Amino acid sequence: MPDTPSHDDQFADLFGKLPAPQRPAAPADATNDAAQAPVAPQTPTPPEAPAAPLSRRAAREAASPGGAVPPVAASVASTAQPSPEARSTPATIDSLFGDGPADAEERARQKRHDRDRRKSRVAGWVVFGVVIALIGGVIAGGTYVWLTYENQIRAFMGWEEPKDYESGLATGETTITIVDGDTGSSISTTLHDAGVTKTSRAFYDYLIANAPSATFHPGVYRLQLKMTSAAALEALEDPENKLENSAQLPEGLTMDQSLTRLADGTGIPLEDFEAAVSDPSVYGVDADSLEGWLFPLTYTFDPDVTAEDVIRTLVDRTVTSLDDAGVPQDRRNEILTIASIIEREARFQDDFFKVSRVIQNRLDPSNTETHGLLQMDSTVQYGYGEMHDGSVSTSTEARNDDNPWNTYMHAGLPVGPIANPGDLAIDAAMNPADGPWLYFVTVNLDTGETVFTTTYSEHLKAVEQWRAWCADNPDSGC
To answer: What angle do CA 284, 290, 296 make, to 5 degrees?
Structure first.
């Protein structure tokens, strides 16, 4: 074995830690023999063998050119003698494999490495969370912008859908009514509401571009669904499509609006109809007015019909609807009043039953938040005469006017109906949906989207949503 261990020797550290072998003690007589033995000639003592390095790193430094020889703790030369302590303490396996300086440094380096890896993992998750949050924010923001400004974005990008139906899609049959005083704009809305044209402005825009001087006559007209604006105009100008002695009363009309349509459709003077409704008792109605009793439907009458005959037909049809819904006779006026409010306030079929529940919840005397006040704009507008002003909002003057229909001032139901309800509204009045709602507001007048809420703070948020929509749609009737 070479005097200086090679740095490639894997057992250098182990052997460097081995204790020098102990020689057994000589017996007493051996000592005397040694004393009597002739003394051998003394030879020069060879130089002390170099000590083994404590670790591989120290061995490498010693073997490198100019490397410094590390200090040693004990010599393993054959002439070295163990100390008394070493002779009395036996070597253990732990002492053979104990950590040297290089092992401690390696362990410290591993700890630093592990700590750095933990920090890297934490930092990675933080970055991942930030990226996810940013992506979520972009998606949420984009969705809000699209829902709020869809029409403007489509117009700017040229993505607008066609306003009119294509030729060849017309199908089915429907009727629309033109009343005295209707304009191209109002007829355009009527056609869209009946499903004739694709958008509310399609027919009006066509008139402006192609037939600005078109003339329309009051009456009920038979048309198809999904017609082009050009085909709808042609049908309205064709006398064959006009139904004689007919009147179409859509849901939600007031009595005055209904009488005007009846006069236009039958040719009977309006004054005759006004006289025919002056005494409700003639038709078995125990009320001060026939408001709400003229059932909405499309009617065709014989040529010799009278105004009183027409009114009786409409009242009888209302009684049939009340009986079919199971309304007791003594509750007819109450249910018609609730149903008329539902008819004016609700937009979709499901909303009819929800609005009915809101009315019941607000009328509940145990409800301390509403104090029995309905606070329905439709009733206030009816009592003040604002219902036909083209706005869903109630003026300050109307809210401050003390009349029996002002449900902001007077608790409970108003004194009577405010419009003609149909079968669905009457059914909803009798069978409200289950729910805790106390408020509702239509946040989009084009789609009819309505938000129902339970608390006033939630309601205010929905009102702000409606105001934002109105700001983006200033000509929408807000």
So the answer is: 105
